[in-house]
Amino acid sequence: MSTNGKLLDVQHVTVAFHIGGLLGGAKLLAVNDISFALDSDRPEIFTLAGESGSGKTTLSRLLLHDLDPTSGKVIFEGRDVATIKGRRDVMAFMKQVQPVFQNPFETFSPLRRVEEYLIDTATHFGRAKNRRAAAAVVDEALRQVGLSLEEVSKRYPHELSGGQIQRVSVARALIPQPRLILADEPVSMVDASLRMAIVNVFKRLRDEQRVSVIYITHDLATAYYISDRIAIMLRGYIVESGPVEAVLDRPLHPYTQLLQESVPKPAPEDQESWAKHIELGTLEAKEYTRVGCKYAGRCPHVMDICRQADPPDFFVDGRAVKCYLYADGPESGPQLIDRSTQGAAPAAQPQDLGKS
Ligand SMILES: Nc1ncnc2c1ncn2[C@@H]1O[C@H](COP(=O)(O)OP(=O)(O)OP(=O)(O)O)[C@@H](O)[C@H]1O
Ligand SMILES: [Mg+2]
User: Fold this and answer.
1) Domains of the chain by range and CATH?
2) SS3 (DSSP) at 237
3) Which of 21, 126, 253, 318 is the most buried (most CB within 10 A)?
4) Taking the complete model, does pTM exceed 0.90, yes or no?
5) CA 174 to CA 119: how far, in whole Å?
């Protein structure tokens, strides 16, 4: 099976949901013609960022084979994920692609010691033949996140701090030795001061274990610090994507510019994520079903054409941007401010793993 050098190849995927309420009978494209690929030989951290209801979790469900696309394909290591059927194939796929979820307390049963769960994971995925051998595998995974089996031994989930239990859930995802980790808002329930310690684990996995990570987040500060590339999602579309410095230091799409400006500048411990600053509600379904650019109703630069047809991707300054302002190249857009020279890039401080 040819992989074309790609670990993951997402080809024009779309997911349609039928919605009720005022817009009853309408179709909502929670994922709308999205394409991107991850290289097989060059592990990276690829971030999907966007406000609540932009389609991030729906896209991640496609990548985890938890949902089939309405159209388009997800190809993992050369194989169309929709064709993975049967216990053996599903297990083989799950070994390669592991999730980390937002709420670690949902991953672990409150009634079981966390080590039991980790040991079961090791035997279940064939990493160890018996419990004694599994203990060594579990300890190795915990050490990769700055913990050890001794530290979590005999503990129930509630006896660990929020930062520790989320690191244990990253360790759980590492046990099957995946090539790709899909982390959906892994730090949004973790204290702001501990977030960097956890996302730093992803950086180390990329560099030392050659694991690729798809990092889904509201938090542009951590995204800026750890990502190689970032894709900004709005109402089912990727509206801008490219190297993280280009996209966040010199945002081109008016929506990315809004997000960038909404990143609070004061001390990180006071930070609320920008997602909370944006009023949503009924706007969501309206924007999803709007003809043309989904951002037209909020965009300060809106033009007639934006309300007539979906903008295509324009390739400008090393990234793809879905905005008619760039139909004639970079000069045609609103005046750009290079935020990297203004000290306004999201502040992110690396932290010591040992601190949580
Ligand atoms: N099973 C479903 N049936 C109908 N609509 C759905 C379903 N799942 C998601 N949606 C809708 O699809 C859109 C995208 O939802 P999704 O959960 O993917 O967004 P998100 O970016 O992950 O949001 P959040 O940041 O709040 O987690 C939303 O409008 C949501 O209401
Ligand atoms: Mg979500």
Assistant:
1) 42-70+83-355 (3.40.50.300)
2) strand
3) 253
4) no
5) 12
Cα of 224 from ligand 1 centre, angstroms: 24
Cβ–Cβ < 8 Å for 146, 28: no
- Cβ burial of 181 (10 Å; 0-12, 13-18, 19+) is buried
Beta bridge partners of 238: 233
DSSP designation for 300: T
Strand order in the sheet with 229-234: 97-100, 180-184, 212-217, 45-49, 229-234, 237-243, 319-321, 314-316
How far is residue 328's CA from residue 86's CA, in Å, rounded to a whole number? Answer: 50
Q: What percent of the chain has pLDDT over 90?
A: 69
Q: Whose CA is nearest to atom 6 of ligand 1?
A: 17
**Ligand 1 atom 27: the closest Cα is on which residue?**
52
- 199-257 pLDDT, tens digit per residue, is 999 999 999 999 999 999 988 989 999 999 999 999 999 999 999 999 999 999 999 99
How far is 3 from 340, CA to CA, in rounded Å? 37
For the stretch 252-305, pLDDT in tens is 999 999 988 876 554 444 444 444 444 445 678 888 988 999 999 999 999 999
pLDDT at 138 exceeding the cut of 60: yes
Whose Cα sits closest to atom 29 in ligand 1?
53
Bridge partner residues of 37 (DSSP): 9
User: Is the Cα dihedral 25, 26, 30, 34 positive or negative?
Assistant: positive
* Cβ-based neighbour number of residue 45 at 10 Å: 25
Evaluate: CB of 236 within 6 angstroms of ligand 1.
no
Q: Which ligand is nearest to the CA of 32?
A: 1
Q: How far is the CA of 140 from the centre of ligand 2 (A)?
A: 30
